[in-house]
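I would love for you to help me understand the pair of lines that follows before we discuss the fold together.
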Amino acid sequence: MLFNSLQYLLFLPVVVTCFWLSGKRFRPLILLCASYYFYMNWYAPYCLLLAALTSLNYLLGLGIDKAKAQSTQRKILFGLGLLLNLGCLLFFKYTNFLVDCFSSLSRTVPHVAAQLSQPLQIIVPLAISFFVFEFVHYLGDIYSGQKPISSPVRFALFAASFHHK
């Protein structure tokens, strides 16, 4: 769903109406559901990727916060978070580029070059860079001493809110 589509023109007033008619307690959940619905309209299976990244980063943030300052556990959790997020970004955005580069370098070995000449069929998730850098920034803030977002719904909304993509 694009911001300039008829579908969005119908979607937005429904979300705003539901938001204002609901109690304050349910508003974050309504926005979260609307955000996931908005994201699913692009390519539904990647909602699972977004949910998994959100869940893992939420748990990593809580773990980093609970670990003692300057502890090895804290550093490991932060490093794991960086590896997870940046690895996801590298996989989706740069795998075909790396395969192409490796294929070019391996032209001297015909069997290997033939195997690597076809790009992989990877669909880049919508706003993957945005999500990854938001999560990395969040984990960096927690690592430097800020308090994590305690509510899983609020954290998921921080990551997936449709109106700031």
Observations:
- Residues 97 and 119 are 8 Å apart (CA to CA).
- The chain has a mean pLDDT of 86.
- The first helix runs from residue 6 to 21.
